[in-house]
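Escalation from tier 1.

The customer reports that the assembly of two entities below gives different structure tokens on two consecutive runs. Tier 1 could not reproduce it. I'm attaching the input and our single run for tier 2 to review.
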Amino acid sequence: MSTRTVSDLGERALIDRIIARLATPSWVVVGPGDDAAVVAPKRGTLDVLTTDIQIESVHFDCRFTPPEAIGHRALAVNLSDLAAMGAEPRLALLSLALPDAMEVTTLDGVIDGLLALARAHRVALVGGNISRSPGPLTIDVTAGGTVHPRRVLTRAGARPGDEVYVTGTIGDAMAGLESLRAGAGCERCEQRYLRPEPRVRAGLLLGRNRAASACIDLSDGLADGVRRMAEASHVGVELDAAALPLAEDVRQWHEARGHDALDAAVRGGDDYELLFTVRPAHGGRLKAVRRQIGHLPISKVGIVTKDPGLSIRTPDGVRPLPEGFAHFR
Amino acid sequence: MSTRTVSDLGERALIDRIIARLATPSWVVVGPGDDAAVVAPKRGTLDVLTTDIQIESVHFDCRFTPPEAIGHRALAVNLSDLAAMGAEPRLALLSLALPDAMEVTTLDGVIDGLLALARAHRVALVGGNISRSPGPLTIDVTAGGTVHPRRVLTRAGARPGDEVYVTGTIGDAMAGLESLRAGAGCERCEQRYLRPEPRVRAGLLLGRNRAASACIDLSDGLADGVRRMAEASHVGVELDAAALPLAEDVRQWHEARGHDALDAAVRGGDDYELLFTVRPAHGGRLKAVRRQIGHLPISKVGIVTKDPGLSIRTPDGVRPLPEGFAHFR
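Tier 1 run:
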């Protein structure tokens, strides 16, 4: 049986193949296939736009990342950015650069994964382009959403005294990536790495309840997210090591390998949880978010300080949170 | 003197370097540097969105494409798509994948070229991302614009009897690319290849005057554009070879090399002119466009037919316009 490659099919046929699978909602005035997409704005909202690229061997490894996961992640990282702004996702555009020898079934898998996540979040794929890649498989997604003007979340609103929170658990994706590289270990962690769930509903609830003073998504780890938020807000942060939400299997994974689980969780990226701050007076608003959010845990992990330093309180005392957060035991 | 590379500087410094150069208009509620950009929609308009990628060795050759031209073209191809929809460009997002060894001055040049064109069209760069590339320099731009609901131009509106027009001259960019590869020849053509001018004003005027029944931009040549428009509109087209707008230097360039100039002009891509159709009754509207457009020529090049075939009338008779339009003399 001969395997068809994307260059056998050609650009036009590949585009038609994707377009045939799309459902186009009524607010899309001109959908995929014309020079550009035309969409009706949503009344009373602002537009939110973000773009993030995924490149083979930089952002994912085809040896252990199934095509569906590649497509899922390419959209998920963008929806996570929208979530961090408190936005409701609405549409996506897809730029694909494909190696000539890539099999059509692999491309189908990438599209499957992307469209499954798009459907789950009612995101319409409204445009894009396909190109030959002389190098790695490259997937660049631009995502657009909407947000009510008074519900925008930014990184810049944290003030001294605000409490610092994080959704879900951290360090899972890093353990998952290690597990995938090792060939086995922590199945739950692997899924967290391969199919991160963008915290769209959490971001929406934080915005709707006006509960968060600042918000950012954790793409490059907790330490990185804390640093970026603190810089944007011109404040410092003191984390509490004992309060960090580490899953038991992640703790075991790292301890079995002689690693400091806490260090790994603080540095490890790809979790796509939300890090946010809440004014002390807005505890009631956060309570409302907790009621509405269902099973997703929200953990208080620290406090915003006036002093611009970044630190973490451990059983051995308060230590600085260094660039890259190499070691702190 | 040591040359700094982009990996010497790192992602954060590179992003800060670009952001420092941007001016942000008042409708940008949250600009570059947060998780996503937030922009206020323009009252009474629809949003128009497009994305197009430029990859080294696929879309441009660094040996004869200066960095400024790479940046210019990356934005120009997207503005051309907006122009073809009758849209007014407004914003752009930029995804960059940079080889480690790329010099910072080269990146500066790419950004110079992109921002110069952005300024000329009052386009705000509102977001983006920078990533390492294990392969070629890759620039993916998403552009957004606005259009009044009744002024949208699509590919699908051509009807039998409509007249077919093209802006500017065609085949210039192909001759320019050949000239660049040869090391010299047609300086004007080279500039047309390196710094295509998206026909934004022409697209706007066609929409405002409601002059065009269909419109598409010529990225892959006249034959390709005619085919795509005809397919979308379920019609045929008969071109008139004698009416095609060939510049004298382009004609000479091809004839000096023993090529059929007409064939080259019909097949040659990268001109980014607009191809559009006009109802016979709307000659007055087109006249208004001509009055307002200034020096840009508009040439009638053919007629829309009910018969779905694509053909070209030459001194030797009517010939089919084949896929790729190999030869017709």
